[in-house]
Amino acid sequence: MAEHRNPDDLAALFPQAASEPIDPVAMARRDLKKALPKRFYREARAEPVEGGFALTLDGKPAKTPARQDLVLPTLAAAEALAAEWNAQEDIIDPSAMPLTRLANSAIDGVRAALMETVEEIARYGGSDLVCYRAEGPDSLVAAQAAAWDPVLAFAREKLGARFLCAEGVVFVTQPEEAEAALLKAVQFWANDKANAPFAVAALHVMTSLMGSALMALGVAHGLLRPEEAWASAHVDEDFQMRVWGRDEEALERRTRRWRDMEAAARLFQSVQS
After folding, report:
1. Which residues contact 163 (CB under 8 A, 6 or more apart)?
2. Is the keyword Cell division in the record (predicted)?
């Protein structure tokens, strides 16, 4: 196993962002296929620089896969990344560094495709999880209503977006006014030039993991804690397990994906500090 001595060399360890939507699960799988380098640095720190706070390794700036400096807009965000790097022990394991992977994607990918990413998030409104309800049994219908009706009320009252619901497998076309209001609500988080790539990248990850832009915005606005939103996104799966028994493979997958969800929510909050 080759030992890396230069922070620049670490860029090859993380996947380079591309134009397609961020897929944190696929990113983690690619990371795991790489030979993991030994930890070579003594300390990771957040250092003030022009335009924000840089992640440094023994005083040298860490780089993204595209060889850009890993600079965050707030001290809280940079310190969170530094803590992730300091938590590495004998080897540097990207699968245990979801904040770094997300920050890399924000800098190398989302920053150059900000509005495209905003639009990708908003398109989830056309098939948002909370709009598709079971016809039965009554216990599942009630569980979905308890978890998702407050999200629809939030969209209606806070965002001005009145979404329609459908039962079963019937597709429902949402009103243009609702989709326009959702797009505006997502665009709001792209207004701050410094924070926007990180906030939008985090929203995209939360949206794609939950299948719901409305729940991701609920987390962004403080309606839902990340763990509450995550539980709401798995109402159907939990019901099936109560009926048919635990699915250990599904639960293991959920645990892995939760790490990315939690990191996205944490990065989102930290760049608002």
Report:
1. 125, 128, 130, 131, 152, 155, 156, 174, 175, 178, 214
2. no
